[in-house]
Amino acid sequence: MEQNFHQREHDKFIPMTSITSGGGVQVKADIYYYTDQMVNIGFVGHPEKGEWVLIDAGLPHAASEIKSVVVDRFGKGSKPAAILLTHAHFDHVGGLAALLEEWDVPIYAHSKELPYLRGEKSYPKPDTSVEGGLLAKMANLYPNEPIDLGNAVQALPENNQVPHLENWKWVHTPGHTPGHVSFYRENDRLLFSGDAFITVRQDSFYRVLMQTAEVNGPPRYYTTDWKAAFESVQKLAELNPEIVVPGHGVSMKGKKLKNGLDRLVKQFTDLAIPDYGKYVDKENNLYQ
Q1: pLDDT tens column, 55-112
Q2: What is the pLDDT of residue 202?
Q3: Which of 92, 107, 181, 87 has its CA nearest to residue 142?
Q4: Measured between alpha carbons, how far is 24 from 40 in angstroms, rounded to an integer?
Q5: Nearest CA to 44 among 21, 65, 63, 70?
Q6: Whole-model pTM above 0.85?
Q7: Rounded CA gap, 251 and 277, in Å?
Q8: How confident is the model at residue 189 (pLDDT cuts 50, 70, 90)?
Q9: Would you list the DSSP string of 164-215?
Q10: Which DSSP category does 10 fall into?
Q11: Are 219 and 92 in contact (CB under 8 A)?
């Protein structure tokens, strides 16, 4: 493409990984996700039917891995009809600039995420003081600067429909970021939750490395509005998802998912909200 996309601030290696890195899981015939170090990238569409979409774009330097998965799954020369973003944190947009050098495709995100995708506004800095494990203490390594994709990115439709995905809807799930969204297919109750809730304790180096499966709230070091985060978890639990593909962790389904979500909603203050941190106000009864 002729347009130059700016993503220099994200052009660095992040020292985080997991035992599932470099592997993929086919959840359904048309649902596949690939793990880039410790973040999941979704591919939605039947390999034999042509049109498909990409959900999120991984960490910096993820583009080559994404392209390799595309060749294996959809064939050489294939590209998505669109790229959908749950939010614009560095570990979900890392491959975008490089992908757009080759793919002339639209990108969709919530309108409240557009400033972070058009170079206009930086996220609040991650909180290294927050209660949590080693990965929370390392959070100063994570970029918080915006990338600049210009007009290549546009707002999701206001009617909650998802471009190029029939029978899907997007759900506004703020808290982790102002414009965070999740993607939900009603006919089989399949959910891409992004970071609204995840299935690994993201601040624990060991649990991330081993991908210990458990329903958790959003990553603590990057969540700035815990009241909204709780309300978003409630909203997703009310959808009663049968299968979830989270932004971090392994896919989960059935009773284990339902029980984990129910527990998270009932015990959100204790399970999700850290005891201390600059974005925490546990003294006020805002959450339950």
Answers
A1: 999 998 899 999 999 999 999 999 999 999 999 999 999 999 999 999 999 999 999 9
A2: 56
A3: 92
A4: 9
A5: 70
A6: yes
A7: 29
A8: very high
A9: TEEEEEEEE--SSSTT-EEEEETTTTEEEEETSSBSS-TT-HHHHHHT----
A10: G
A11: no
β-bridge partners, 190? 185, 243
Does the pLDDT at position 9 exceed 50? no
Shortest CA distance to 146 belongs to which of 201, 101, 85, 191?
A: 85
* pLDDT at res. 137: 56
- 265 and 258 Cβ atoms separated by less than 8 Å: no
**Under a CB-based contact definition with an 8 Å cutoff, are residues 86 and 110 in contact?**
no
Decide if 181 contacts 110 (C-beta within 8 A).
yes
Tens of pLDDT along 167-179? 999 999 999 999 9
Token pair, residue 59, equals: 């960490």
Q: At 69, list the tokens.
A: 């998965």
Tokens of 46: 């039947």
CB atoms near residue 212 (< 10 Å): 16
CA distances in angstroms from 171 to 174, 235, 286, listed in the order given = 9, 9, 22
State the pLDDT confidence band at 185, using cuts at 50, 70 and 90.
very high
Lookup result for tokens 């592997």: 23
Residue 259 φ/ψ, nearest 5 degrees:
-65, -40
**Quick check: 108 and 154 in contact, CB under 8 A?**
yes
pLDDT (mean) for 152-158:
97
Q: Convert 95-134 to b/e letters by CB count within 10 Å (16 or more is b).
A: bbbbbbeebebebbbbebbbbbbbbeeebeebbbbbebbe
Query: Could you read off the pLDDT of 137-150 as tens digits, one per residue?
Result: 565 667 778 899 99
The residue behind tokens 């979409």 is: 53
Return the structure tokens found at 87.
């939010």
